[in-house]
Amino acid sequence: MYSENAVSYGTDGYIQYVLDTYSQTIIRLCYTYVHNICDAEDIAQDVMVTLLKRGKPFDSPEHEKAWLLRTAINKSKNHLKSGWIKRTVPLNETDNSEIDNSMDEKNQVMEAVLSLPEKYRTVIHLFYYNGYSIKEISAIVGKKPATVGTLLARGRGLLKEMMIGGFDEDEQVD
Amino acid sequence: MKMSKSIKDYKDAMDSIKISDSFYKRTESLLTELPEVKIEKKPVLSSRHLTAFISAAAACLMLVFGARFVIDRRTQEIETVTGITEITIETNEETSPPLIDSFEEDALVNDAGVVVGDMPPIPEEESVECDDAADLDGGVFPDSEGEFDEEAPVAQANPTVAQDSGEGKKETQPVASTTPAVTTTSQTGTSENHKKENEVPLLSDVNYDYVTVEITPYFNMGSIKSGEDSVKKKGSDCKDIIEYISGLAQNSHKISNYSFKSIFSIQIADENIGLTFYSIYVTDLNAIVITRHDDINGQERFTFGVNAEDYENLKHLLFLQFGSEEDYELFKNLISGK
Q1: A75 and A148 part of one domain
Q2: Within this chain, do residues A70 and A145 fall inside the same structural domain, yes or no?
Q3: Mean of all residue pLDDT scores within chain B
Q4: Residue B58, min C-alpha distance to chain A (Å)
Q5: Chain-chain contact of A37 with B20 (C-beta, under 8 angstroms)
Q6: Are residues A171 and A138 in the same domain?
Q7: Buried residues in B35-70 as b, exposed as e (16+ CB within 10 A)
Q8: Which pLDDT score is estimated for B136?
Q9: Which residues of chain B lie closer than 8 angstroms to A168, CB-CB?
């Protein structure tokens, strides 16, 4: 175990701890891939099951977080590659019920981000929404910090082109 | 699709995505219903360590078995060699007269009588041997003792001979000093070879009161038949000879890889059970071989190069167990091949 105060791996308390700490992050990260909240929830659930089946505790909280998000990314990609997805049309394209239509402008920003290529989209999401550092993101996506920085800059550049007035970074979390 | 928006809008939009209320319940129940998670304990040794450990253990085992095999094999070889040697000696004793005058090694004796030089690497088991050469005895040495007496000059005056009329054999009481006269060459080699700590000097442990000494000649001369006319005496009667040889062993240096022929053999055995303690071979080429039969160490063989003077004295002492003083010169000639 990585910490004396941490909940023991595999216990009921640990399940609760993981759900409380990571479920929202995982679901939203999966959403950036699958663009469907139900699918994102299913993938997040699958990630949790995989976590418990892993059978061995993590060395540190950073390791735990990186593993969970990396697994979520991989499972999302696998989901998109599955034959079922390729043959079906997502409901949200016909019915965006999970998105508050009153936030059209904000949704448009989100749509702009989600329309970015995957390599930019993931780092933008992890950097601006989750507030992870470049080092943390590099551990999650399995790329060098410098590469992550480059992807982040290019992703921002793409967003600026897409949005009038550019992409304001005042709110970014370090 | 160009809009002026900030990162906060993105966060708000992302936060606005509603996660179903049932997700937590569904997931929690799913996870708790999973079979009990078996937590893998971190292995103390990694697979690499394990492999290395197993390899090392296997190597050690192979080394141990290899060493054991080699030791066993060597032990077997030693035992086999010892057995062959004994058989050879016994065969020689039983068979016909040995050839004394044919030397397998030429000019191996230096001025001091110590064997030196480039001797061929002949196994030690071959070192004691007596060849059959029946043609030697009859022609050179007539059977008649009388003729010997007439022809044989008195070689040395030192040993006194007492005739044993009953058996026709002669008992000798050598006057010669039992302390071997050794050269400086011998002494130099001696101090290095024989002053090992805790080593019982050869023949020093003979209890003369409880042993018999059997001296066997390996030459044909007159009535003396090679390997047949042995003399068996009490240990106390041969004390002088044994002590003399013991002194030689302590003051001469060891040699090895030496091929020679026996002239006399001396067996020192327990008088009751016949267990042999020592086998001594007095050979041509100024060498003596002493084999110690030990229950603990098995057989140990020592070969010593003896200086010429000591060698002559020893031969003289031994010959007088079989022949008279007058015959000794003939014996010398026979041995030297003259």
Answers
A1: no
A2: no
A3: 68
A4: 32
A5: yes
A6: yes
A7: eebeeeeeeeeeeeeeeeeeeeeeeeeeeeeeeeee
A8: 35
A9: 5-8
The predicted model gives B222-235 an average pLDDT of 86
Name the more confident of B90 and B303: B303
Q: What is the CATH number of the domain that holds A120?
A: 1.10.10.10
- Domain shared by A9 and A94, yes or no: yes
Q: Which residues of B touch A131 (CB under 8 A)?
A: none
- The 10 Å Cβ neighbour count of residue B77 is 10
Are A52 and A20 contained in the same domain? Answer: yes
Angle B263-B80-B116 (CA atoms, 0-180°, nearest 5)? 45
Whether residue B206 has pLDDT greater than 60: yes
DSSP B276: E
Q: Which of A98, A124, A147 is the last residue of a domain?
A: A98
- Whether A136 and A165 map to the same domain: the answer is yes
Using pLDDT thresholds of 50, 70 and 90, give the confidence band for residue A138.
Answer: very high
Strands (E), B77-202: 98-99, 128-129, 131-132, 160-163, 170-173
pLDDT value for A164 = 60
Long-range contacts of B230-236 (CB under 8 A, 24+ apart): B230/B93, B231/B169, B231/B321, B231/B322, B233/B321, B234/B208, B234/B271, B235/B206, B235/B207, B235/B208, B235/B209, B235/B210, B235/B211, B235/B268, B235/B271, B236/B208, B236/B209
A-interface mutation test, from B1, B4, B7, most A Cβ less than 10 A away: B7
CB contact under 8 A, A106 and B9: yes
How many structural domains are present in chain A?
Answer: 2
Q: Do A138 and A144 touch, CB atoms closer than 8 A?
A: yes
Q: Would the pTM of this model clear 0.80, i.e. be above it?
A: no
In this complex, which of A23, A98, A105 lies closest to B5 when CB atoms are compared?
Answer: A105
- Intra-chain end-to-end CA distance of chain A, in Å: 28
Q: Cβ separation of A12 and B34 shorter than 8 Å?
A: no
Last residue of a domain, one of A98, A127, A144: A98
Q: Which domain holds residue A108?
A: 102-174
Contact B218, B261 (CB under 8 A): yes
Q: In this structure, what CATH number is given to the domain that contains residue A87?
A: 1.10.1740
Task: Say if the Cβ atoms of A105 and B9 lie within 8 Å.
Answer: yes
Query: Among B6, B18, B29, B40, which would you mutate to test the A interface (most chain A Cβ atoms within 10 Å of its Cβ)?
Result: B6
